[in-house]
Design a protein that fits this description.
With about 140 residues, this protein is mainly alpha-helical. About 65% of the residues lie in helices and about 0% in strands. It contains 8 helices and no strands.
Amino acid sequence: MEEQQGSELMRQVGARIRDARKAKGMTLKELGALVGYAQNSLSRWEAGGQPLTVDQLTRLSSALGRPLQYFLGIDFAGADTSRALDLMREAKRRLDELMVEAATPELPGLLGDVVEAARVLSEEKQRQLVEYARFLAGGER
């Protein structure tokens, strides 16, 4: 069953997409026509069974009239500066998680394992890893 394949974050994002769509009184078909995505893709995203990219989520966010952080479950209301910074870091972490989930199924063999392992690295270490991979590939980009 597709619902069991996605991560908890994917399921939460999907439920928020569905809630926002229903709050606007839109069908999957209507939303699909508005954003240019197939109805079956929207259905899988809502079920949390298929990863979506940040670009896809941003388009849905715009079409549904909700800020991106709504879909990530981040609420900035009433947050002081320090808390807002923490929430922004959490939003970035969640977006990064979605990006890895969206990219990993398309990656061949061990490359998906590399991406998964790199998730825990600092941004600087991730940059170093990219530079090393470029070095190994002979500078090809």
